[in-house]
Specification:
two-stranded antiparallel sheet; mainly alpha; 6 helices
């Protein structure tokens, strides 16, 4: 006799598949964004941080912490982004000992040109397909999932890399 899958088990499997699909398509989207902008993943993430953070508080040290890079690694990365015209470094306006990192108009224009239409379409889709109570649940889930991923990232930062064969 064939045993039927329970409803909670079926929903769990569907949710797992949906999350895998979401992560897979998100990674594909990021790869295409990287290709179009001419960046690598670390440079893209750094540019994203610079664009989203308060421009007076984005420092090389903060980028090193957020990206898990050394000071030398951040310097090399910032050199690449500066050479491409995506960032500029300058002295902090009130603390001349600190360097701040700011996105250029070129970076802002290119990212907005590509990303804003996707954000608008996503928002329209959420408004069209889900009511306010469902959107609240979706926002709560995404926030909690993001917090969990930050915790996992921190755990991984504390793990030594596997030795190479």
């Amino acid at each position: 006799m064939c045993q039927r899958t329970s409803e909670p088990a079926r929903i769990s499997v569907e949710l797992e598949r949906a999350l895998e699909f979401y992560h897979e398509t998100g990674e594909d989207l990021i790869r295409e964004l990287i290709r179009v902008l001419g960046l690598n993943e670390t440079d893209r993430r750094a540019l994203e941080i610079v664009l989203l953070e308060d421009e007076k508080s984005t420092t090389p040290g903060m980028l090193a912490e957020r990206l898990g890079l050394t000071a030398a690694g951040v310097t090399i990365m910032l050199n690449r982004l500066e050479k491409q015209g995506y960032i500029v470094r300058s002295l902090h306006p009130t603390d001349r000992r600190r360097v701040i990192v700011m996105a250029t108009e070129l970076a802002t224009h290119r990212v907005r040109e590509i990303v804003i239409p996707m954000i608008v379409e996503r928002y329209k889709m959420l408004l069209r397909w889900y009511d306010s109570a469902e959107r609240e649940i979706i926002a709560d889930f995404l926030t909690r999932a993001g917090e969990l991923q930050r915790m996992h990232r921190q755990r991984l930062r504390d793990v030594a890399p596997y030795p190479r064969p």
